[in-house]
Design goal:
By secondary structure, the chain is α/β, with parallel strands linked by helices. The protein is 35% helix and 18% strand. It has two domains: 110 residues, Rossmann fold (3-Layer(aba) Sandwich); 95 residues, Rossmann fold, CATH 3.40.50. The chain is globular, with a radius of gyration of 18 Å.
Length: 260
């Protein structure tokens, strides 16, 4: 099924946040009205983010401040994917390089985050990074403790340009210790959305992933079979899209032009 900016036939959308709905603390122009159009049409919407620096409750507070109503079950994070992987591997002792909010999500699921004998070093988007965290994590990695990352993003979009994200920290650790992660969770892993699509009882052709990153958002859309709608309001440029091999259904300036 081909789609255009009217998005006819789409029954559920998965929306990236940073660079798609907002930049920093400001809504992208037209984002609120776009969400209203989805609601008016009866399209189910979920907010999907690789940004593991915040907990679900912190995301809900931010969305509320921006005038966007959302429920806990509508927020899907790379941290959820990470938690599922850790539990499947039987890992409950970790050393976390991450924020307090991320740590609270792990601890709430029974995963210790400051172990002196960790089974894994867990790396998230740590906006509270300290040299002590980096050196302690490096010590564990030198000792053979495996590294696990919440997501692969190199940069986090901001109004002033890209800021260092998990991918940048991964390069730092590889340079320092020679260690590469045994697992990178989050987008573009299709598990981030296929479970929810199954719960909704929808066909992938009736769903769309809207985001500003080709190598995470659009790659996940391609891998899962949903429509990929790239918006040029954040990380990716038109030039990036023109040279990419990732399948995309549509390229739009921003969400403001969609669902009209």
């Amino acid at each position: 099924m081909a789609i255009d900016e009217r998005m006819e036939g789409i029954e559920a959308v998965f929306l990236d946040l940073d660079g798609t709905i907002y930049l920093g603390g400001e809504l992208i122009e037209g984002a609120s009205e776009f969400l209203d159009r989805l609601d008016h049409r009866g399209v189910k919407r979920f907010f999907l983010s690789n940004n593991s620096s915040r907990s679900v409750s912190q995301y809900l507070r931010k969305l509320t401040r921006l005038g966007i109503p959302a429920r806990e079950e509508e927020v899907l994070l790379s941290t959820h994917d990470l938690l599922n992987w850790l539990e499947a591997e039987g890992i409950d002792d970790t050393f976390l390089v991450g924020t307090q909010g991320m740590g609270e999500m792990l601890e709430a699921r029974g995963i210790r985050t400051q172990s002196k004998s960790p089974q894994a070093v867990v790396l998230g988007y740590d906006t509270e990074i300290t040299y002590q965290k980096l050196s302690d994590a490096s010590m564990y990695l030198h000792a053979g403790v495996p590294l696990v990352a919440s997501h692969p993003d190199l940069v986090c979009p901001s109004p002033v340009g890209g800021l260092p994200d998990v991918g940048a920290y991964l390069s730092l650790f590889e340079t320092t210790t020679g260690v590469r992660p045994v697992k990178v969770c989050g987008k573009p892993n299709p598990s981030m959305i296929l479970g929810m699509i199954g719960e909704l009882g929808l066909d992938v052709e009736c769903c769309a992933m809207i985001g500003d990153s080709i190598y995470t958002d659009m790659a996940m859309a391609d891998a899962s079979g949903v429509h990929g709608i790239l918006v040029l309001s954040g990380e990716a440029t038109a030039e990036d899209a023109a040279t990419s091999n990732v399948r995309m259904s549509l390229i739009a300036p921003s969400v403001d032009s969609l669902c009209r």
